[in-house]
Design brief:
The protein is mostly beta strands. It has a domain of 94 residues: Immunoglobulin-like, CATH 2.60.40.2150. Helices cover 13% and strands 45% of the residues. It has a 4-stranded antiparallel sheet, with no helix packed on it. The longest helix is centred in the N-terminal third of the chain and has 19 residues. The N and C termini lie far apart (75 Å).
Amino acid sequence: MNVVRHLLVLTIVVFTLALFTPSVHAAKPRVRKSAPVTTRKVIPGVSFSSAKFSAASRSVIISFFNLDKVSKISYLLSYTGSGQAQGVGGSISPSGATDSRDLYFGTCSKGVCTPHYNIKNAKLLVTATLTSGGINIKRYILRPKW
């Protein structure tokens, strides 16, 4: 009988609180702003880079092509090596139709190079700024086998 009385009191308290508690409203409604849409001419189906591994030099070789349509190319290689975040980046201003860069998975100082081991989460981002004003971004996920 005592349990029934407690349940009855609890039910009355819950209903009373639900009926007489004022509702809560946000101080200000959220307004999401959309990013401005800019139209830039991108050349569909045209690639400006490729990447391949060189096991002999423990590096990734980036080849750039169709550079007559490009005003600038930048690249960023990021990875975890030897237990630490590592990376290298750079840019080129094209002077011919093709070019390439050899990005070493390691560090070099005074002509002595030391490779990084246990390479993980390697990513390469190549951004080509076109002469038409457009931007072409290509992402590579790299998985070296060494």
